[in-house]
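dumping this here before i forget
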Amino acid sequence: MRAARMTELLELERNMSVGATVWLTGLPSAGKTTIARALADRLRTEGRPVEVLDGDEIREFLSAGLGFSREDRHTNVQRIGFVARLLAAHGVTVLVPVIAPYADSREAVRKRHQASGTGYVEVHVATPVDVCSARDVKGLYAKRAAGEISGLTGVDDPYEAPAEPDLRIPVHEQSVGESAAALYTLLTERGLL
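structure:
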């Protein structure tokens, strides 16, 4: 009986997640959300607690009313970072596919995670703007070309690519499965899974 209980406890411990925030940054239509959802599916299959904080959903519910000025974009990133850190501190792997165009905003989120001892990984989904424009998942590049919108990140608004991300994924050169697997490997190597 005692050996069976020990085995049960070891199995529970093995399945417990450490918790971490995985920030996937990149241009619009780079593939951030697609990779996050693929990895989330794998983690759920393994019984791990995982959440995807999609940038579009956050804009609608948590950051409604914010525009796209540098200040508003910074506020949006800080709000998302706060929620992600809370979830990660409670053992959830939090996948954050959010553009977060400014390096200082992303660094502020990283520093708050580090200060609280919460895992944080920055992933650059490094898809060139011409590939993103051809994909144009939300029609943003077409709207920009037609003059219907301005301030498109990476086109007429800045995007500061990470100089030294924890992982750089060239999605345009590999499959979604390969991209998600590379991220899974990184998280495993860092002891975050």
